[in-house]
Amino acid sequence: MNNFKVKSIKKEQCKEWLLYKHYARRFCSISFSFGLFNNESLCGILTIGKPASNPLCIGVCGKENSKYVYELNRLCVVDNLPKNTLSFFVSQCLKKLPKMILVSYADTAMDHNGYIYQATNWIYTGKTKERTDISTQEGKHSRHYKKNTDYTKNRKTRSSKHRYVYFLGSKKEKRYFKKCLKYKVQSYPKGQNKRYDSSYKTLTQKEIF
């Protein structure tokens, strides 16, 4: 991994990756953003933000710890990276974060099982239920809807997702978070992963100092 390094980047550097390369094709809440660089070229991004759902923040480890809950909401890299590069990228990002409770999801609709979270020792807490929520327009999340507007014809199905949790902090803080965890710890899921089309070629992006 001598040619690779991980650095904090500006959220604007993630925009093209999120809108055109990641399968979700939409921007997301970003509190922390990191780039994977091969020499000077950006070849991957990872973003972390506050979840749109306040009940989720409360539901992980209780209301008293809800302010610490963040979501690893996007992880996207170029194709054909050397083996173990992705786990290197994620583990280096985790080392750069402050005390927090991280949640992330692997989408069953995309045949994802979350093997990168398993490789980096996240806690698996089962699958979410399939549901529907409001979509104001293509690519928009339900938290963007306008009050007193009828969006009943604009509901979108949200697939079931594998849910992973990771604790950051001192040994004492991580023990406390684990004790407060409301979800049941389960065995890692297995299955054949399916790759989505990530062939979009981002513009050459050099490291910005």
Please provide a written account of the structure.
With 209 residues, the chain is an alpha+beta fold. The chain has a single domain, classed as 3-Layer(aba) Sandwich (Aminopeptidase). 20% of the residues lie in helices and 28% in strands. It has helices spanning 15-21, 54-61, 85-95, 115-119, 171-180, and strands at residues 4-8, 32-38, 41-49, 69-77, 100-107, 123-127, 131-134, 155-158, 161-168. The strands form two sheets. It has a seven-stranded mixed β-sheet, sandwiched between helices. Strands 7-8 form a two-stranded antiparallel sheet. The longest helix is centred in the middle third of the chain and has 11 residues, at 85-95. The chain is globular and about 40 Å long.
Distinct helical segment count: 5
Strand content: 25-35%
- What string gives the helices and strands in order? EHEEHEHEHEEEEH
Low-confidence stretches: 136-140
Task: Predict the CATH topology.
Answer: Aminopeptidase
Strand order of the main beta sheet, please? 1-2-3-4-5-9-6
Using the 3D structure, state the CATH architecture.
Answer: 3-Layer(aba) Sandwich
Rg estimate, integer Å: 17 Å
Helical proportion?
A: 10-25%
CATH homology-level superfamily: Gcn5-related N-acetyltransferase (GNAT)
Structural class of the helix and strand makeup?
A: alpha+beta
The major β-sheet equals: 7 strands, mixed
Mass-distribution shape: globular
